Amino acid sequence: MLTQKCILVFLNTSEIAKLYTLNKEHHTKLSENHEIKKSIWRGDLPEASRKHFWKQCCKINKVKTEVRGILNYTDNASNIYSYIQNQAEEDPKFYTVKNDISKDLPRTYLVANSQIDKSQLSKILIALAYVKPHIGYCQGLNFIAAIILKVVQNEEDAFYALLGIIKSWNLENMFVSGVPDLTLREYQVSYYFKTMIPDLYAHFRRINFSNGFFISRCILTIFSADLPFDTLVKIWDCIFIGNWKVIVRTECAILRELKPIFLDLNLEEISIYLRNNVRENHYDYKSLLASAKSFKISLKELKYIEDDFYKVQSSLKIDSDNQTYSENEDLVKDINESEGGELDQVKQDIARFQEKIKKIDEDYETVQQHYLSVSMEMQYVEKDIASLSEKKIAYLRIYKDMENKYKQSQNGISKYVPDIMSKIFFSKNEISEADEIKLADMKKYYEKMKIIEKELEELKILQREKFSIYQDAYSRLEDIKEKKLRYSEQLCNYLLKCKQSSEISVNP
């Protein structure tokens, strides 16, 4: 029946989505059909169908079987998720993981106001750390898991869906120690950023703004920290049918949408804007989806960029004549296996070069982890500032409304005390009991605004400090890269000289 594509014309998105989740045959047929994809790209998938659609895309039943295999759990009668929770609770090595998770829960906006949601999210993240100890817990996972929990609305299913997303979206190496894939993903997005939005890219370079900061925070949370929930879930619907290339498209669409604003801002102003306004600018999900879809990005091209990335990485280990690192390794091995007193100094020099490069690699991983940690800390401070700013605006609106009503009720009396704040704090003359209550309420909101203003000022100072640390970490990363390249080139040149020297015999 589904092979007759014309039948789909008579179905709406919700009905097609239900067919998509029925069984493997329907799933395969509809995955190959463009109608469901077009509909999802329009943002037509209804909220009522999303939970089942996501669960089907995450293949949670298959994930459950895989988890049993990973843990070698053979008791089919018991609930493996409960088993994981019990094991993690009793294992003392999860104390640090639990502590890290508990610090991030209040900062995860979707669950921050619900103790039940926070508890469920904590259990999901702890279970993930138990099943995948090489990942443990990484900042960013809290936002992703919170979105899944909000949509799936079941703690256990959300856990399996999280595992399914990590696998199907190829995110595992984004969250393991050292986040090895993050640099690759930044490189891919930067390629399209540079080629498709060159004027904004050039502007970022002129003002010394690191596009890597904005790109990495979007990637690590799959936009869940930067887009409003209603827009985000529609983007995720598209990611389920398009995987990584949809993430790249969306990142570019957001940058293009912000371009008219950013081109008129300096470094500090862009930082403030990202801190306060990003999520509020994307309520028009249809516009964002249309913009993202307009970017022509293919998996073949992404693979080409990935290959180019690894070529660039390997260039740190080759000389100016493009001698490969493996060839240099062979040359080092030949020299070290050679005999003769005159070779001792050469071997010692090579060992020193190699030790320096090894130390640089270790330093790079350490600094990179620090850089990512500072980036996330900046994000948390920025969100706190955004939250307080919203609260201040709300209090100011209430205060102004009360002030206007008070002025209207005073009629002729207000002309004697034109400054209402002076009346609130200093004047007790000609004030009725009703007026005193109104003025007391106004004073309460006025004082709340002052407290918030003080907190905002303190947070802005903290944000400036964090940004300074972030810039320092970024500079250190670049310095380490340059140092490694310099040492690698020196070693290559030294090896070439050794090879060409008539005083040293190198085995072919």
Would you write up a description of this structure?
It contains 23 helices and no strands. Among the domains are: 42-174, Helicase, Ruva Protein, domain 3, CATH 1.10.8; 179-303, Cyclin A, domain 1 (Orthogonal Bundle), CATH 1.10.472. The longest helix has 68 residues, at 343-410. Helix 9 crosses helix 10 and helix 16 (244-262) packs across helix 18 (285-294). The radius of gyration is 29 Å and the shape is globular. The chain is an all-alpha fold. It has helices spanning 13-20, 24-32, 34-41, 47-58, 60-71, 80-90, 95-104, 115-131, 141-152, 155-168, 172-175, 180-196, 198-206, 211-221, 229-242, 244-262, 267-276, 285-294, 299-314, 325-337, 343-410, 420-425, 433-500. Helices cover 74% and strands 0% of the residues.
- Second rung of CATH, namely the architecture of the domain at 42-174: Orthogonal Bundle
* Broad shape: globular
The helix count comes to: 23
Strand coverage percent = under 5%
The share of residues in helices is over 70%
CATH fold-type name of the domain at 42-174 = Helicase, Ruva Protein, domain 3
Distance between termini?
A: 67 Å
What would you call the structural class?
A: mainly alpha
By DSSP, the count of extended strands is 0
| CATH structural class of the domain at 42-174 | Mainly Alpha
Average of the residue pLDDT scores: 76
Order of helices and strands: HHHHHHHHHHHHHHHHHHHHHHH
